[in-house]
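Sync notes, pocket subgroup
Present: LS, DG
LS reminded everyone that the earlier model was apo-only. Rerun requested with dioxothiomolybdenum(VI) ion included. Inputs:
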Amino acid sequence: MSDSIIGAGPKRIDGQRKVTGEAPYAADHHPDNMAYGYGVFSTIASGTITGLDLEAARQSPGVIDIFHHNHFPELHRTPSSMAQGNKVEETRLPFEDNRVHYEGQFVALVVADTFDNARAAARKVGVSYQRDDAIANLDQGVKAHGTKPGSGNHERGDAEGNFDGAAHSIDVTYTTPVETHNPMEMHASVASWEGDRLSIFESSQGVVQQRGALSKIFGIPPSHIRVESPFIGSGFGSKLWMWPHAVAASVAARETGRPVQLVVPRPQMFTTTGHRPETRQRMRLATDDNGRLVSLRHESINTTSFTDQYVETCGSVTQSLYSCPNLTVSHETTRVNRGTPTSMRAPGAAPGLFALESAIDEMALAAGVDPLEFRLNNYADRDESQDLDFSSNHIREATEKAAEKFGWHDRNPEVGSMRDGHEIVGYGMAACNWEAIKRECEARVSLRADGTAYVTCATQDIGTGTYTIIAQTVSDITGLGLEKITVRLGDTSYPNGPISGGSWTTATTLPAVAAATREAIKELKGYATSEKGDFADVDNDSDSLVFENGQLTHDGQGVNYVDVLKGQKLASADGHAHTQGADDRYSYRSFGAHFVEVRWDPGISNLRVSRVVSAIDVGRVINSLTARNQVEGAIVMGLGMAHFEATDYDARNGRPVNNNYAEYVVPVHADQPPEVDVILLDYPDLEFNEFGARGIGEIGITGMAAAVANAVYHATGKRIRDLPIFKEKLMENIPAVQSA
Ligand code: MOS
């Protein structure tokens, strides 16, 4: 591997297409004769549809058909298995029956000749309901029907027995609200049929899984379905799995005999395409006299829907980040009248580390130890939950480097003691952590006689830079410039690739692309050493026959690969590879630490994050530009989680009340801290894959909200245990320290 291109920071190779509007997104596709669907959505959260008044809608201009539970073909549910490649999060099909499980559920679909006509007609559909009492939130769910055990639990030692009587202990509960992903590009499907073959453009993080799910639902072979998602306007997890609109669009296209486009309106992106669920997490920690953890319990409950059980594995990090012989992690769910939750950037770990890393701060204070020292004293040196060594773990170095750069050692630990004019300055820190995952993957690479390379894989680039790092990989091995390498992704007609999620795309796809490139070179060598070849006398697997910088070289004699192909009138040398997932020799994880400075002005109740220093150990960095971009983006998303983001539901009826960009607040440029300093440690994890890359998309958000909450405590003396940290929460019962 040369040093040049792997680890460099070339700009996104798809960047120009994106900024010039040339890159097609799902709803940019307009096949001939396309019709438009527009949904009618439930206005109650729980109950039964008792009647549909369709007359006015039917007479509305341009209407072609109206689908609903009495006018929808019989389909099959998908078994929803990721291993089988047909997972969805909401297994109930649209229009399956007249039950309403959440507000904003599809109750009808109008198809018309134009978007405007479809929308106008949809608004004329009358729906009558028999309304049941809605379970509107986690508390109501637990009260009404308790909880159900979830997955991902862990137990070692005797956490309960070592809690009472410990030198120091805390017993605290944290809560996090529903968050909605809010990618800029709305969910959209453009479906067309030709006979019994379905073709669908989708804004998707997982075309192969969607093909598998549609295959099960329609009872047709996967080979008859093509799902395409070459570009998406992000997803953050909401587009990992297919949602009901894609089934509705596919049915509408089949039944009307026309391609149908269906875009999910923004308000329903808060209801029918997943969300991060609400959590309640009880943390019980205890230490000995020396501030060493002796007992740790993390018990989490999250909301799920009435149709499916989604488990937010809040304790996934807790079981391995700190050394503790007595530890329990448990997950439970409770059903509420909301759509089915789904993964949102760092599922489990994002809300889980808000609780864990806030609790560690509280525990350190209770034990009288500096929070930085406390962590350094308690970090695990091996994964005690799996009894495995970490493949590579530089969390101590990350923590110390970031602390140094941040200036943690200048912190006066006394609450409210650090002042700058009107402002009280607070310093907080938290660890961050994410599992490194690598899955099975296929890829194809062609070295073509026109001097270019062509790569295909049915994974996606969700805006993270996947196109670019795949091109870098081929460039690294072949010596071809990035401009000579065409990468095609997001199409099920390409070799099977992974979902773009879990931060596993890089570690999964690069080994497959590299192997396919080597296969193509091998084929080229076969041509070169054949009877008619330039190296007819050389053995085709001879070590002295080398491919370098676009040349096949033997004994000082070099031939450009283009000439090898042209000499035999061949179009290309092709390689296909199928690589496997990670082994279980080690615990593969990424590590890091965030340091946050907040400024609180009690006079005008202004709170802002003024500085962030984060050091992250994600293995080898493939592209320094896009990697930094991922971490910075995740940090800002973490600030959104800390300060702003919460989908509110009316406790009386389960209605989402801020289901729009005006009232669901995400960070904007003005909220960006003046200083965000990201240190990437760049230690290759060669146990994990040949590139040593572990993936980088999610770890940056983990721990951020806790680092902010810990800084807010240091500034204000207020321990905010329920996100988000609205300023109003700091204004209640302002303690004496702030009125100085
Ligand atoms: Mo990520 S939540 O796996 O897109």
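DG: The domain at 15-21+441-579 is CATH 3.30.365.10 (Aldehyde Oxidoreductase; domain 4).
LS: The chain has a mean pLDDT of 96.
Action: DG to write up.
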